[in-house]
């Protein structure tokens, strides 16, 4: 399990290979890449700046990954979240889950993303033509996370 | 009781500080008491921490609710709903 | 939309970048990588050889991708399936879907994989210590595809 | 009526051929008729195409079922359930 918060870009080939290249039990890797879009709520976005709560972030992400591991067959998992200033088309987050079979990999990956969106202490500020503004939390993200509740 | 207070994102900007060391009066026993105590500072504190405003609380880097009891040395964070990913 | 059947390995960085780097509307890329495992049905697998039906394969995959595009917000999609002889830990298939939001990307990606498993004319033969054998279709794959039926 | 027959995977191996050009007798009008006609060859044809065996049919590169009518020049494929991905 690898959990990392960083400003640098990441290498998808290397990150995914680390999940499967040395483990021939892995039959499936489901992954998610979140990217900066150039429009949000109808306004142009020039840059996105991500802030987080060092310490709590890693703790929250580790807890989410552990919860996913307790629910599905998960052989390995990588979560990398970038912070700092990013531009449209730049990757923000990578969540990748390695499992024996695809259903577990898909479900665990989507679960981690849904909880990351509502539980991990990151905040986005976007620069628009009208100035900088903090991105508002989306109710749809709460709904997405709530559907996993047992 | 002494605690460290951390503010993030919009709250950090509104309060004009990222952290402070606070000595709490004896009647502040829970996280809810602490929020009420901060609110009583007035200004941005009263506005941002008003009843019904959406903010989140964490104690020692775990999400927490107003009923959570505080103890000396706690790291308390107050921040807007998260928007990562 | 890119649909390709090939013997060569593929470059994940390049394939995923092709989906998002030039399109700032893309906020989410969900992807799936299927890999050769070293064990199947309890037996060791030394190599896996994939055969397909040229012409029908591409047609079947294009139809599956079109169906996914009609159901979800899909900005772009790449499906690459390898054929020929592969070894454990080697990638077999990549399905990657680019959307504005993550729910569409996840659902469409999983849909394409489920239908690929039951509708695209590929067949696997595995080399085990007891000799070569054709992989049997799995009932769980039919069940997975059936859940998308409206 | 002339059709091209294609076999894949285990069926290709069992039948010992990947394809054949076949001239069908007049009574073979549907895909189901064609399968019965091939089955009547006996041997591996009778075994692999027996009622209850799992195999799939395609006409001109689309999945098809036994009721599908055949026409001159069709490309007909017979293969085991698919196992890609």
What labels describe this entry?
heterotetramer; A: 150 residues; alpha+beta; Aldehyde Oxidoreductase, domain 3; four-stranded mixed β-sheet; four-stranded antiparallel β-sheet; B: 85 residues; Ubiquitin-like (UB roll); five-stranded mixed β-sheet; 5 strands; 27% strand
Overview of the structural elements:
- The complex is a heterotetramer, with two copies of chain A (150 residues) and two copies of chain B (85 residues).
- With 150 residues, chain A is an alpha+beta fold.
- Chain A has a single domain, classed as Molybdopterin biosynthesis MoaE subunit (Aldehyde Oxidoreductase, domain 3), CATH 3.90.1170.
- Chain A contains four helices and ten strands; from the N terminus they run E-H-E-E-E-E-H-E-E-E-H-E-E-H.
- Chain A has helices at residues 12-20, 56-71, 102-119, 139-146, and strands at residues 2-6, 28-35, 39-40, 43-44, 47-52, 76-82, 84-86, 91-99, 122-128, 131-134.
- In chain A, the strands form three sheets. In chain A, strands 1-6-8-2 form a four-stranded mixed sheet, with helices on both faces. A four-stranded antiparallel sheet of chain A has the order 7-5-9-10, with no helix packed on it.
- The longest helix of chain A is centred in the last third of the chain and has 18 residues, at 102-119.
- Chain A is globular, with a radius of gyration of 16 Å.
- Chain B has helices at 9-15, 31-39, 43-48; strands at 2-7, 19-23, 56-59, 62-64, 75-79.
- The longest helix of chain B has 9 residues, at 31-39.
- The radius of gyration of chain B is 12 Å and the shape is globular.
- The N and C termini of chain B lie far apart (36 Å).
- The A-B interface holds A 34, 50-53, 55-56, 59-60, 81, 92-93, 113, 116-125, 134-138, 141 and B 6, 8-10, 12, 54, 58, 61-63, 77, 79-85.
- Strand 2 of chain A pairs antiparallel with strand 2 of chain C.
């Amino acid at each position: 399990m690898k959990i990392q918060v960083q400003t640098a870009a990441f290498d998808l080939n290397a990150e995914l290979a680390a999940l499967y290249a040395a483990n021939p039990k892995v039959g499936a890797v489901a992954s998610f890449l979140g990217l900066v879009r150039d429009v949000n709520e109808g306004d142009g976005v020039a840059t996105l700046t991500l802030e987080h709560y060092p310490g709590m972030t890693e703790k929250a992400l580790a807890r989410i990954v552990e919860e996913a591991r307790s629910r599905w067959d998960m052989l390995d998992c990588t979560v990398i979240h970038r912070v700092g200033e990013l531009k449209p088309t730049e990757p923000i987050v990578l969540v990748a889950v390695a499992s024996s079979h695809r259903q577990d990999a898909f479900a665990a990956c989507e679960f981690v993303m849904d909880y990351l969106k509502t539980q991990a202490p990151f905040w986005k500020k976007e620069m628009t033509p009208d100035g900088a503004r903090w991105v508002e939390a989306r109710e749809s993200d709460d709904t997405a996370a709530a559907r996993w509740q047992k | 009781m002494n605690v460290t207070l951390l503010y993030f994102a919009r709250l950090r900007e509104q309060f004009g500080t990222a952290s402070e060391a606070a000595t709490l009066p004896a009647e502040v026993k829970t996280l809810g008491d602490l929020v009420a105590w901060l609110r009583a500072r007035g200004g941005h504190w009263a506005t941002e921490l008003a009843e019904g405003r959406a903010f989140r609380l964490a104690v020692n880097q775990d999400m927490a609710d107003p009923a959570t009891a505080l103890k000396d040395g706690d790291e308390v964070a107050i921040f807007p709903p998260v928007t990562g990913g």
